[in-house]
Amino acid sequence: MPAASTEASTRVGAGSETTAPSSSPSPAAAAPDSRVDVGTPAYRRMSLALFLAGVATFALLYSTQALLPLISESYGSSVGDVSWTVAAATGGLALFVIPMSALSERFGRRATMTGAVAVAVAVGLVVPFAPSLGTMVALRAVQGAALAGLPASATAYLAEEVRPRALVTAIGLYVAGNSVGGMSGRVLTGWVAQEWGWRVALAVLGVLAVACAVAFRMLLPKPRHFTRGSLRPGAVARTVRDHLANPLLRRLYAIGALFMTVFGGVYTVIGYRLTQEPFSLPQGVVGSVFLVYLVGTVSASASGRLVGRFGRRGTLYLSGALTAAGLLVSLSDRLAVVLLGLVLVTGGFFAGHSAASSAVSGTAAHGRAQAAALYQSAYYIGSSAGSTVGAVAFHAAGWGGTVAVGLLAVAGVAGITLLGTLAARRPAPAA
Q1: Quick one: angle between helices 368-397 and 151-161, nearest 10?
Q2: Fewest beta carbons within 10 Å, which of 208, 214, 382, 387?
Q3: Of 372, 109, 368, 102, nearest to 231 (Cα)?
């Protein structure tokens, strides 16, 4: 397989760089591709805008995770009840990502993303003043549903506005913003809450999200290649059915879910492990472990170069191997070695996630927002499954149980990628 080959065709819609050979090229075939390329001012503005959107999205989505003990004490509720402040947000996103992608097909990517982030940050400014836990959970569900408008619309926007050779890098930068947001939503709130309480911490994060949202709207270029689609439920259902009938897309959805199963399990349980013997770290230091997310920022941004060198499947194999190595290394009882394991898991996860999600956008010839939405649904299903199963395994068998769950998921990634490799090597049927 050539180094730059991928599982997806480079034909991603109007203006594709893929052309059929012809002795007399038509004017359309000879016309230059007007989509954005790497290194241009428009590409830099677009990348920064979506990076900031990713920061705002994931900072808000996981804003309460590091604050659960404080929120529990404030409302006099159990940790299990308070955990719904996280589950409601991720569940709202998973449930609404496909409907929001349908709105994106009808009303445009930029408009949908702008409306989504505006509602999410507005709710984020209200959440710190929630008078009861039930009110907070309801607000978080609304916030998650609003945030669903970002992920699918963003990748579809990039697939339409960026040249195919720049797509993986552009999506990698967006995912890098996700990692920064996920980190800040935990680390920042943890340290602010330690000094001024959880309500102030959430308010500070809300203001940060507002700043990101304003900059995003000012920087994001107007779309030039969007084609309006249908909002009819039947048409949306047919599009979803078409995507699920595509073997490559099904494999990519499964890979995204399995990678997130590992990541969700590891980062849900790691706090418990580090506060116990032999580490016994204070809560503030445990929260700072999420700075490891910066490794994900680097690996997600580098995913385009990895795909260019090793191909899409080669990058997925490499990402899976790094993740598995990190899981095994983390079994050590030495803190420095455990942190190294987290670095490898985080780097492998974000590189694999970027490669898989960009392949989804590049594969779908129509209904790209729905294609990306299905990936996001699978991704968050994997997050929920990993968090639940990883925690159950930890309570049953300690950290080794969580690692075993992660290794099974990585084995699934390798097996599915191998199926793609074998499918690509089969000779095409005779015409």
Answers
A1: 140
A2: 214
A3: 102
pLDDT at 342: 95
Q: What is the Cα–Cα distance from 338 to 269, expressed in whole angstroms? A: 13
d(CA 116, CA 329): 40
pLDDT in tens, 273-286: 887 889 888 767 77
Q: What mean pLDDT comes out for the span 160-178?
A: 74
Residue 162: φ, ψ to 5°: -115, 145
Q: Which residues of 98-123 are buried (b: 16+ CB within 10 A; e: fewer)?
A: bbbbbbbbebbbbbbbbbbbbbbbbb
Token output for 287: 């929260």
* Mean pLDDT value of segment 243-265: 91
- The rounded distance, in Å, linking the Cα atoms of 154 and 144 is 16
Looking at residue 7, its pLDDT comes to: 36
Residue 68 to residue 82: CA distance in whole angstroms: 6
423: closest CA among 259, 305, 304, 246? 246
Closest CA to 270 of 381, 387, 181, 177: 387
Region of poorest pLDDT, from 107-121, 147-161, 162-176, 311-325: 162-176
Largest Cα separation within the chain, whole Å, is: 76
Q: Tens of pLDDT along 216-226?
A: 989 888 877 66
Residues 6+ apart with CB under 8 A from 224: 34, 35, 161
Helix crossing, 198-219 with 164-196: angle to 10°? 150
Backbone Cα Rg of the chain:
21
